[in-house]
TrEMBL record, chain A:
UniProt xrefs under InterPro entries: 4Fe4S_Fe-S-bd, 4Fe4S_Fe_S_CS, NADH-UbQ_OxRdtase_51kDa_CS, Nuo51_FMN-bd, Nuo51_FMN-bd_sf, Nuop51_4Fe4S-bd, Nuop51_4Fe4S-bd_sf, Thioredoxin-like_sf
Species of origin: Biomaibacter acetigenes
Stored PROSITE patterns: 4FE4S_FER_1, 4FE4S_FER_2, COMPLEX1_51K_2
SMART domains: NADH_4Fe-4S
Name of the protein in its database record: 4Fe-4S dicluster domain-containing protein
Family membership noted in the UniProt record: Belongs to the complex I 51 kDa subunit family.
GO molecular function: 4 iron, 4 sulfur cluster binding; FMN binding; metal ion binding; NADH dehydrogenase (ubiquinone) activity
4Fe-4S ferredoxin-type domain span: 570-599, 601-628
Keywords: 4Fe-4S, Iron, Iron-sulfur, Metal-binding
TrEMBL record, chain B:
Coiled coil: none
A single MF term (Gene Ontology): metal ion binding
4Fe-4S ferredoxin-type domain span: 114-145, 153-184
Biological function: Ferredoxins are iron-sulfur proteins that transfer electrons in a wide variety of metabolic reactions.
Lineage: Bacteria, Bacillati, Bacillota, Clostridia, Thermosediminibacterales
InterPro entries, alphabetized: 2Fe-2S_ferredoxin-like_sf, 2Fe-2S_ferredoxin-type, 4Fe4S_Fe-S-bd, 4Fe4S_Fe_S_CS, PSI_iron-sulfur_center
Protein name (database record): Ferredoxin
Keywords, ordered alphabetically: 4Fe-4S, Iron, Iron-sulfur, Metal-binding, Repeat
Domain 2Fe-2S ferredoxin-type: 1-79
Superkingdom field: Bacteria
PROSITE patterns linked: 2FE2S_FER_2, 4FE4S_FER_1, 4FE4S_FER_2
Pfam families in the record: Fer2_4, Fer4_21
Length: 633, 249
């Protein structure tokens, strides 16, 4: 380990780690290293060790070296492995610590920074390899990933423009403004095959070209940072962790289409995103990247932040524009395209955060490079927030075309608690649920569509065998029933009635013909709704019917919930032939419903609250759910 | 340009809506939320049709779909009928006892609703026309509140609106007569508010609320036209006739 190189301690302060006191860990490092005496100790220790080197050097360099060896402490955006946060990395030594607590900080400083020793205890144990790894790059979670949109997230201090510039920041903008015409930019983006990362996957280059073509001014560019999906934090992580990438992408886009005014729509709850973005905009303006006569090129462009009210439907582009205009955030028909008549009736290009963040890289590395990643019709990478029942939840970015299996079992480390995989839901609340038989699907825009789901903005929720698929459909529909704007009949009334049927099914009032009726309603909602929310809302219902029909039948005909989730339809019992009388179930039952008798353990159905704790506790699979046929007896 | 609707060749201008072209050519497309005076709602979706463009079929909303090319339109394919039937079923589940909706239901041979929980007192289908009409008058007394399945039309906080003038335009445009204007004993009850009705100075018939009359008077005064007197329609015509007779004598 070469002490002469400046070391950096990178503490993850992304959404996941923040909720686990990541900020406190950062503060502790800062105080201990930079303010307290430790700093002096550290430097002197290094200095003594390097005395012979410094002596021979020019005196000026000596002082340089002094500052160089003092480690930098940086709070970064999301480093990805949220499950194991707070994460701390020490570079360039490639040491990766997980679940770091404030009380661990002194030990890290003393052992790793001062004595070059690794704190074994804090290393990450890779669930796939079954061993501890020292460098992040050795972990399966990071191995299969490829960071393009997230290239700086987790690597830089988002508040430092220098950090961004050090990693090629604003280089693309300089190239564009000094060497390229807007036509050059348009064709480069077209050639790259970049498709909108916000949902529908519309080719970005084509969209830009359509907008550039219209002779109507002014034109606007918008960044959609609304991200209303519950549990999703892709866009948030980029805005928080690397705001300048988004800004640079927008300036380049504005140059290409001929716009001078941009809007960044960020949901109000994203406090840190707004703060970092505001700061970044100020920095960019100060350095001449934004505003009048950018970098002396004669091109003017500025960006304004708009805080979104937080309705899910505002992620829909036309609703979002209505909201920026100060109207009720309701969508309108898209028969007239936004590139012709968007914001205030003017030509508008709207892309989401991730799409914009891809733009500078494409310019820097070229469309050919970008095209070499991904599949035939989906180029580049996609960011996902991987959550649910996987071991490694977090923020990931993979090349398009990677299989779901790879994402879930390699990157995700498999199903948590050693349970079985059941389904994965992609695309946010109105995405579909994909079963085990389709796990080898290559993830891109078109294959997910064909499977009845969608890419959406990149939510990915993994479900295990203790998940009831009817209940899942009901959960999402319930969310959508509150989030639909309620403007058009199919979406408002259709979702309401589908939800009514699903509630009935889950509570034991399902009827013959309900499945068919759900399918029929779903079809109408999909075909006749006005905006994207309605058009996709039936996905969770239609896909669960398609892939998990037997579960619906069990609920309706046998009045049984096979997963033991719908309480009205669940009766637990202990299978005598499997029970080893260990008593674990009794210990875990919160309502003292399990009784020990001479013949073994029994569940007193009068006391049972159907929590399923006993089933989870039993190591022999002796606690079972009474199946339909037995119930009828 | 020429487009085909159900096999009939129709003249059309670029940007014209399919529904308008169909109407002109006596092709019936059912509508609920459309009003010639307040076009562009596009909420009820009853007017959906299939458009075939470059060999590709898609379902569009005819009242807001502008034609830009020589398309073929089918207003009554099996698919469209299916979706329309489901939409009417949904509307009828919402407002089962509404006369207008019930007529539609029978027209489309849909059996009375038995699967869903229904509310016999509901008549509003949330087409939004009343809100638009009130906005158009410049009053803004009512609006849609809430979103999703709890959406409804109301005054702010469901209280008597301090700006409503009781003109009843909202009720007039409502396709399902969901808004009840109750006139009795010289009073009008509307949107939780009671208005005093004004009498015609000639015949003594009730004409409209005092607020509405004042509103019109102010508007007209602003335009610089002669100050009007409170007259009912009949007496207005009569006076006009008399005046004319006087002039041409
Ligand atoms: S589809 Fe749903 S969210 Fe979209 S406009 Fe219609 S009611 Fe509103
Ligand atoms: S399901 Fe819960 S309450 Fe019922 S017996 Fe098992 S542990 Fe006890
Ligand atoms: S009250 Fe009538 S006009 Fe107003 S939204 Fe309801 S149905 Fe439409
Ligand atoms: S008449 Fe076209 S949507 Fe209602």
């Amino acid at each position: 380990m070469n002490r002469n190189v400046k070391r950096t301690v990178l503490i993850c302060c992304g959404p996941g780690c923040l909720s686990n006191q990541g900020m406190d860990v950062y503060e502790e490092f800062k105080t201990k290293i930079l303010i307290s005496g430790l700093d002096v100790d550290l430097r002197s220790a290094v200095e003594t060790e390097n005395a012979c080197v410094t002596d021979t050097l020019h005196p000026g360099i000596k002082t340089d070296l002094e500052t160089m060896v003092s480690p930098a402490v940086k709070a970064t955006g999301c480093q990805g492995l949220c499950e194991m946060g707070p994460l701390v990395r020490i570079e360039p030594d490639s040491i990766f610590y997980t679940k770091v607590k404030v009380s661990d900080v002194t030990e890290i400083i003393e052992k790793t920074l001062m004595e070059n020793r690794v704190v074994e205890r804090l290393l990450y144990k890779d669930p796939v390899q079954g061993r501890k790894v020292r460098a992040r790059e050795e972990a399966e979670f990071y191995k299969s990933q490829l960071k393009v949109a997230l290239r700086n997230v987790g690597e830089i201090d988002p508040e430092s423009l220098d950090d961004y510039i050090e990693r090629d920041g604003y280089r693309a903008l300089k190239i564009v403004l000094s060497q390229k015409t807007s036509e050059d930019v348009l064709s480069e983006i077209e050639k790259s095959g970049l498709r909108g990362r916000g949902g529908a996957g519309f080719p970005t280059g084509r969209k830009w070209r359509q907008c550039a073509r219209t002779g109507n001014y002014p034109k606007y560019v918008i960044c959609n940072g609304d991200e209303g999906d519950p549990g999703a934090f892709m866009d948030r992580s980029i805005m928080e962790g690397d705001p300048h990438s988004v800004i640079e992408g927008m300036i380049i886009g504005a140059y290409a289409v001929g716009s001078h005014e941009g809007f960044m729509y960020i949901r109000d709850e994203y406090f840190l995103a707004i703060q970092n973005m505001t700061k970044a905009l100020e920095q960019a303006r100060r350095e001449g990247f934004l505003g009048k006569n950018i970098l002396g090129s004669g091109f003017d462009f500025d960006i304004q932040i708009v805080r979104g009210g937080g309705a899910f439907v505002c992620g829909e582009s036309t609703a979002l524009m209505a909201s920026i205009e100060g109207k009720v955030g309701e969508p309108r028909a898209k028969y007239i395209r936004s590139v012709e008549k968007g914001l205030w009736g003017k030509p508008t290009v709207l892309n989401n955060v991730e799409t914009w963040a891809n733009v500078p890289v494409i310019i820097n590395k070229g469309a050919d490079w970008f095209c070499s990643i991904g599949t035939e019709r989906s180029k580049g990478t996609k960011v996902f927030s991987l959550v649910g029942k996987v071991r490694n939840t977090g923020l990931i970015e993979v090349p398009m075309g990677v299989t779901l299996r790879r994402i879930i079992f390699d990157i995700g480390g498999g199903i948590a608690g050693g349970r079985k995989f059941k389904a994965v839901q992609t695309g946010g609340p109105s995405g579909g649920c994909i079963p085990e038989s389709l796990l080898d699907l290559k993830v891109d825009f078109d294959t997910l569509d064909e499977a009845g789901s969608m890419m959406g903005s990149g939510g990915m929720i993994v479900m295990d065998d203790r998940t009831c698929m009817v209940d899942v459909a009901r959960y999402y529909l319930n969310f959508l029933s509150e989030e639909s704007c309620g403007k058009c009949v199919p979406c408002r009334e259709g979702i309401r009635r589908m939800l009514e049927i699903l509630n009935d099914i889950c509570e034991g009032r399902g009827r013959q013909g309900d499945i068919e009726l759900l399918a029929e309603l779903g079809e109408t909602v999909r075909e006749a709704s006005l905006c994207g929310l309605g058009k996709t809302a039936p996905n969770p219902v239609l896909t669960t019917i398609k892939y998990f029909k037997d579960e619906y039948l069990a609920h309706i005909e046998d009045k049984t919930c096979p997963a033991g989730v719908c309480k009205n339809l669940t009766t637990y019992y202990i299978d005598k032939t499997l029970c080893k009388s260990c008593g674990l179930c009794k210990k875990n039952c919160p309502s003292e419903a399990i009784e020990e008798k001479l013949e073994g353990y029994f569940i007193n159905l009068l006391k049972c609250i159907k929590c399923g704790s006993c089933m989870n506790a039993c190591r022999f699979g002796a606690v079972k759910i009474l199946a339909g046929i037995m119930r009828k007896l | 340009m020429v487009i085909t609707i159900d096999g009939i060749k129709c003249q059309a201008h670029k940007g014209e809506y399919i529904l308008d072209i169909a109407k002109r050519n006596n092709i019936h497309i059912p509508t609920l939320c459309h009003s010639d005076a307040l076009p562009g709602q596009g909420n009820c979706r009853l007017c959906i049709v299939e458009v075939i463009e470059k060999g590709r079929k898609k379902v569009v909303t005819s009242c807001i779909f502008p034609v830009t090319g020589e398309i073929e339109v089918v207003t009554n394919s099996e698919k469209i009928r299916g979706i329309r039937k489901t939409l009417i079923r949904l509307l009828s589940a919402r407002a089962p006892k509404n006369e207008y909706i019930d007529k539609l239901r029978q027209e489309y041979n849909i059996p009375p609703e038995t699967r869903f929980k229904t509310d016999d007192n509901e008549n509003c289908i949330l087409c939004g026309l009343c809100v638009r009409a009130c906005e158009e008058m410049g009053i803004y007394a009512i609006s849609t509140v809430n979103r999703g399945i709890t959406k409804k039309v109301s005054t702010p906080f469901d209280e008597a609106s301090d700006v409503c003038i009781g003109c009843g335009v909202c009720a007039y445009v409502c396709p399902t007569s969901a808004i009840k204007v109750l006139d009795e004993g010289g009073k009008r009850h509307l949107w939780n508010k009671t208005f005093e009705l004004m009498k015609c100075v000639k015949c003594g018939e009730y004409i409209t609320t005092r607020e509405h009359f004042e509103y019109i008077r102010k508007k007209i005064a602003a335009e610089g036209t002669e100050i009007i007197e409170p007259l009912c329609d009949k007496c207005k015509k009569k006076t006009l006739g008399e005046n004319m007779a006087q002039t041409y004598k």
